[in-house]
Amino acid sequence: MATEKNVGEKIRQIRELKKLSREDLAERTGLDTTLIRKLEEERIIPSLAPLIKVARALGVRLGTFLDDNDNFAPAVVKADDLHKGVRFTSQPHETREHLNFFSLAYNKAGRHMEPFIVDIEPSQKSDYMLSSHEGEEFIYVLEGVVEINYGKDIYILEKGDSIYLDSIVSHNVHAGNSQPAKILAVLYAPF
Fold first, then answer.
1. Would you say the pTM of this structure is higher than 0.85?
2. 43-97 per-position pLDDT tens digit
3. 79-188, what's its fold?
4. In CATH terms, is domain 4-65 a member of 1.10.260.40?
5. Cβ-based neighbours of 132, under 8 Å, separated by 6 or more
């Protein structure tokens, strides 16, 4: 399972294998070259949207950054193995809200979906930036209240509620009542 410490290293390795400069990758993703450098060298953890753009530009699955496995057997993750997660921010690095992603398929190669348990830490400020990326998302609320800004609409979901959305529409998922929340999220991003 990839950790925060080697996501950037994997990006660099794949970029170099494909003989792309950081500038080339920035141009293909629409991201700033400085962000690409920070991802690779400083090992900052981006939000999912830039990471999906990087995966798409490199022609790899999002999961390529999250696993080291060639196992095509079914993926079984026991409840005590959730600590093997990867933390992504839901906002620019300097803000407070974070989404902690725990992969439920880190040991499955060749997957097309990315299932996660996500712990949502609330923010004290409502400075939610909407982001978009190719693909689809399914979200099921396990605990707490979740607010989803989706285009111009806002959806409030409580325990047991779910939403299936097109990720290309600008969106943000965050704690809905300044309390922690937990969701099951399944992402599909074509490459």
1. no
2. 776 677 888 889 889 988 777 776 655 555 677 777 777 655 555 554 444 444 5
3. Jelly Rolls (2.60.120)
4. yes
5. 49, 167, 168, 169, 170, 171
